[in-house]
Amino acid sequence: MVRLSAERKNELMAEALALAGRAEGMTSPNPLVGAVVLDADGEVAGRGWHRKAGEPHAEVLALQEAGGRARGGVLILTLEPCSHQGRTPPCAPFVVDSGVSQVIAAVADPNPQVSGKGFSHLRERGVEVEVGVMAEEAVRQNEVYFHWWRCGRPFLSLKAAASLDGKIATRSGQSRWITGEAARNAGHHFRNKMDAILVGVETVLEDDPLLTARPGGVAGRPLTRVVLDSRLRTPPHARVLASRQGSSTIVATTDAAPLARETALREAGAEVVRVQADPQGRVSLAPVLEVLGSRGVRHILVEGGGRVHGSFIREGLADRLLYFLAPLIVGDAQAPGAVSGLDEEELQSLPGLFNVTHEVIGDDLLIQGYFKKPIWKEFEGGKGV
Ligand SMILES: NC(=O)c1ccc[n+]([C@@H]2O[C@H](COP(=O)([O-])OP(=O)(O)OC[C@H]3O[C@@H](n4cnc5c(N)ncnc54)[C@H](OP(=O)(O)O)[C@@H]3O)[C@@H](O)[C@H]2O)c1
Questions:
Q1: Cβ < 6 Å from ligand 1: which residues?
Q2: Which of 38, 223, 58 is nearest to 141 (CA)?
Q3: Which residue owns the Cα nearest ligand 1 atom 34?
Q4: What's the pLDDT score for residue 77?
């Protein structure tokens, strides 16, 4: 039996996490998973990572590479092996058949169809199972996936590019470009990891954005573009409706929108989805998230404007903030702010952020933080596995 020190286990798990990370932005709605196989002498015999939904799972690829050398060896895996038939056959029986005598996993799969069952399958067949090595890092890598199974809705990252006084445009609506090129490139990098990008109709009317991820990024995968537009003011010639890199566009609206505008937008290539109106007559957010979730969308980048950001924050639906701060001052009370529509008067009741980080990008500053305590904090030091 191979016996590994705690340090070696962490080293191997770090390698498995790095392998998993190679497919960042590609596997949704599946998680990122990486695997390393050691032979009976403790030498690395196979490596694998899940590349895309519908393609083989990490442990299968790593065990296939190891072949007969897996017998009596160890499988190091960033997430519990599945035990149910999905788009691919269950992995736990494959792990047993490979002959490995130990499995070291970071964390259990939060999907109730799998959770604990994959580990039980292995233990019942004599495979030694250890869970909890680098659990926090593994959950952090798959926070969107864990969030989905915990909350049943997509993870929402709000992104804004603002001046030092928190303005995202001038009063005449000019917002290009508040931040410098390096920050804009970073913005495209975020888009590449997403399943969907969402904006309010004022942003479409003012900026006429394409809302695509720049080709050649990590994913290069079609994105779902979403516009919140309760009366269908989106013009049929808006660039967001133009087909690009296979991206599709959903215009979410209410029953207040005239049918003729719906027809015109459909003819322009959009899908128009009617949901209930909120008390202000605007598009209700929860039903939109439900529609997107049912289509496999797990991570949405909300790119403004301020009113849309304000709505997500007020409804408690915002999960993370990506705030690019540029060394500019607009200094105009009439210019739109990064967040509007919150009416909290008490300073201590204002939404604050958790786990805040700062990063200098070119001349700009990127401030990131969470609106709630992130799920991965619950797994700190191997707790909660
Ligand atoms: N620098 C940046 O990062 C950045 C990014 C994006 C935008 N911008 C700038 O921001 C400005 C637009 O921001 P904005 O705050 O005026 O508008 P916005 O957030 O883009 O759009 C707001 C509009 O969306 C519609 N909407 C539908 N459902 C909604 C809901 N549940 N909550 C909120 N809005 C909903 C409403 O119009 P209906 O009632 O007609 O549906 C609402 O007036 C533009 O000048 C743009 O250039 C800057």
A1: 160-161, 168-169, 173, 175, 178, 199-203, 206-207, 228-231, 233, 278, 282-283, 285, 303-308, 311, 336, 340
A2: 58
A3: 308
A4: 98
Distance 306 CA to ligand 1 centre (A): 6
> What is the pLDDT, as a whole number, of residue 293?
97
Residue 35 pLDDT > 70, yes or no?
A: yes
Q: What angle do CA 301, 303, 308 make, to 5 degrees?
A: 105
> From the alpha carbon of 278, which atom of ligand 1 is closest?
31
Find the catalytic residue in 11, 43, 55, 59: 59
Tell me the domains of the chain and their CATH numbers: 6-141 (3.40.140.10), 154-379 (3.40.430.10)
Q: Note the pLDDT tens digit of each residue in 225-241.
A: 999 999 999 999 999 99
59 catalytically annotated: yes
Which pLDDT belongs to residue 218?
Answer: 44
Rounded to the nearest angstrom, the distance between the alpha carbon of 327 and the centre of ligand 1 is: 23
pLDDT tens for residues 243-282? 777 789 999 999 999 999 999 999 999 999 999 999 999 9
User: What ligand 1 atom has the least distance to the C-alpha of 285?
Assistant: 31
CA 353 to centroid of ligand 1, rounded, Å: 22
Mean pLDDT of the chain: 93
**Buried (b) or exposed (e) across 284-303, using 16+ Cβ within 10 A?**
bbeebbeebbeeebbbbbbb
Nearby residues of 254 by Cβ (< 8 Å), 6 or more positions away = 230, 231, 274, 275, 276, 277, 281, 282, 283
The set of residues, in sequence order, having a beta carbon less than 8 Å from that of 89 and lying 6+ positions away, is none
Q: Which residue did the predictor score with more confidence, 54 or 218?
A: 54
What pLDDT is recorded for position 29?
A: 92
